[in-house]
Amino acid sequence: MSAAGKLPKITDAELIAHEPSARESWRVFEIMSEFVESTERLKDISPAVSIFGSARTQPDNPYYALTEEIARRLSDAGFSVISGGGPGIMEAANKGAFYGKSPSVGLNIQLPHEQHNNAFQDVSQTFHHFFARKVMFVKFASAYVVMPGGFGTMDELMEALTLVQTGKTRRIPIILVHSPFWQGMLDWFRNVMVTEGMIAQADMELIQVIDEPKKVVEAIFKHYETRGFEPSAQEREIQLNL
After folding, report:
1. What is the third-level CATH fold of 45-239?
2. Across the beta sheet with 207-210, what order do the strands follow?
3. pLDDT tens digits along 30-64
4. How far is the C-alpha of 122 from the C-alpha of 103, rounded, in Å?
5. What radius of gyration, in Å, describes the C-alpha atoms of the chain?
6. What are the CA-CA distances from residue 111 to residues 13, 89, 114, 117 (Å)?
7. What is the CA angle 192-193-199, rounded to 5?
8. What is the pTM of this model?
């Protein structure tokens, strides 16, 4: 208070200056609601496999057909298939699962250019925040299948590798499809990152490279053949701290 015992007057300019920080504080509740809503909506899709790849891939591209076949095989094998819900590889993944036996799940996000929701989603959830969406890709996935893609695909791949490597999520199969596309990156991992001690040689074992759709499904089942798909109590606790 002022010396006269009166509250200081706040000018309109000061209110405007404080508004951005107030909006940021209230945004926390928006983020919380996004996590709660998506967790409730996706809680019954297990076991599920997240598929990533380029939004720019056209339906006549061989990668599109390859993704659609993998997703259909996974769906018929009992896996819900999760994609980003947009065009390209995401659409191919949702389409393959949509015509299979298990749910096709789209985690949609609105972007200025590439993203529009595809029509092949049994379960659809829209996000405003990239980071909340990324958590859901990991939280509900029993495996990652990564098709050829750009920066967004690399982002999801590195996120998964980092979380598994650091023990912040359970060990799941991380499968790269179409070896010619990935070979240069994998050579760089081995010849530069491993050689210079940036990652351990054992970290390369976190990645599998598989080209045939049937073998993608087989690799996932092989990973879980000595245990169930559901996370253990310890793994659930770990995932709470993603």
Report:
1. Rossmann fold (3.40.50)
2. 123-127, 104-109, 80-83, 48-52, 143-146, 174-177, 207-210
3. 888 888 999 999 999 999 999 999 999 999 999 99
4. 6
5. 21
6. 33, 16, 6, 11
7. 155
8. 0.85
